[in-house]
Amino acid sequence: MNQSPGIQRQCFRSLLMDPLHFVRYSPSRHKGLAALNLVLGRTLLHNMTTETQHPYQLLCIGNPLLDMQTSDGSLLDKYNLKANDAIRASPEQMGIYEDISNAPDIQFVAGGAAQNTARGAAYILPPKHVAYVGCVGDDDLADKLREANAREGVESAYLVKKGEQTGACGVITTGHNRSLVTTLRAAHMFEKAHLSSADVAACIKGANYFYITGFFLSHGVESALELCEIASGDGKVMPPFLH
After folding, report:
1. What is the mean pLDDT of the chain?
2. Does residue 119 sit in helix, strand or coil?
3. 212, β-bridge pairs
4. Residue 66 CA to chain centroid, in angstroms?
């Protein structure tokens, strides 16, 4: 039985209103989820919840970042930041991540547009329906990402770059304002060969839906094209790159 548009809107609205999952997350999560809901619509929500299929029907790929959140407004002046902004960290601002790590109110949240979308989709889909692929370092930040994804039902299939640091986003909230400072680090080191690794290849073969953000194309065009070819050849669904 097909779901009505009203039911779909109600499901999506519940995502945005759930404070445990969405109140502190970036607007990219909302836009990513909206794009996913718009493109996959009733096909995704109906087929993926009613048919017996291979696990991990939705595969998302992007730049994994660990959001490091604090309300310490003094960091804005220290690192010359605007109260409401989103920038890439300059060399002079790289110390902000250590400062936030030492903040008494720090919170860690798995981030990055595609990873946010994966976690949002996992919120409404049955267990073991969503997998996420990206590149991380071999550090404690990557462990925190895996833990966050596991809590919310997303399978992490990371490429791990030895000796590199995992990407991070410093988040400073002051009142209704939020300043985001991002460093990609290992996130932009993804290699197409990882798509052929045993775990990822199995996810690709079993998945019927792929989701890639435009951010990933700054370094992962070849990987994106390979997935596009697979989706086209096998009649699978891939939304356009909207971020």
Report:
1. 84
2. helix
3. 61
4. 10
